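Usage

Read records sequentially. Each one opens with the input sequence:
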Amino acid sequence: MYNIFIFLYLIGVWVTSLFSDKVRKMWKGEHDAFRVLREKVDPTAQYIWFHAASLGEFEQGRPLIERFRKEYPQYKILLTFFSPSGYEVRKNYEGADIVCYLPLDTIFNAHRFLKLVHPVMAFFIKYEFWYNYLHILHHRQVPTYSVSSIFRRNQIFFRWYGEDYARVLHCITHFFVQNEESRRLLATLGLENVDVVGDTRFDRVLQIKAAAKQLPIVEAFVGLRPTLGDVASAGTGAVLPDRPQVFVAGSSWPPDEEIFIPYFNQHPQWKLIIAPHVIGEDHLAQIMDLLKGRRVVRYMKTTPEEAARAEVLIIDCFGLLSSIYHYGQVAYVGGGFGVGIHNTIEAAVWNVPVFFGPNNRRFMEAQGLKRCGGGLEIHDLSDFSSKMEAFSASPTMLRQAGEAAGAFVASLAGASDKIMRRIEGALSSK
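and closes with the structure output:
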């Protein structure tokens, strides 16, 4: 049944590729993967294979990849992606020796792929359970690990009609899951080869924090870095004005912006940084329409001098958000009025309280932030306004909420260490 589904999916992808640029890239990339492997695989080398569906899963696996790179340089790293949103961003990632798409999970593709690579170890990140690849890896006695995985009762593995597909889980050498619930669910299938280690994303955000970029335009905007104009007007030895309060909204969507922007239109003492999830001109125009009477600049079109005089800074490029959060006193992470919130711990790691919308039940990190007081769920403008007014009235409350957020992230770091300790034995036997 699974292979019939894959065949039908293959036809669907081919048809869709005729009309979708994104799907066309995936279709072409999967077919090019075998050429890439033929050209780049060193037959004398030993490969450790990491597979991530997309960019988010890659970031979860990245701490492990970089640990292997540093601690076991005798191995080469193969990194595969399923989605263009991962591959296109990280195709030049220097932490891997080979980066390519994973060909679709047919029996023929799986045999061909593994014959070319001959991995000595494989890691599948979070939700990735490809039936044919995993069965053939198991048959070849290749140690295979599920990393940062999370299981829920409504998944197919735990339904009466998913019994056949659930057999794929018995091909995993060891599971490194995020929570106890996942361990309990796997136990119902007779699987005891499980460690609860948490989420490697907590390790990753600490890495990102340590390597944060200095951004002169943002520093000028928030008042950290005096501009030439500031110095000239203040005079030699003069004290520059105190920094304003700064609110950072990351990965925002229109429903998010329709809540926090009206508030800040009425509270000009706050400076506002907006890094929207979609940076197309149509979306940026919508944001500009909401910002009534505010001095607005765009990151890619401004200077430090101009940014210092602005009230709102719009980030119209990618790759800066994780470094931008630390310039704010309060953060907002978007997506909670849609399919689900984006990365809250990326903000929380900087010791700032984090606002987000109500669709956060499936996100363990958001639930943890709410419990510790570092995360605040909001439902509408009134809700958001009352919580912001409380922070404005009590700097102590604001500081304590931020410290709680940062402590929460720090307390859950260390998953990578636990995984590495567990697999050291398997590596030493190679």
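Summary fields computed downstream for this record:
- The chain is about 50% helix and 15% strand.
- Residues 21-40 form the longest helix (20 residues).
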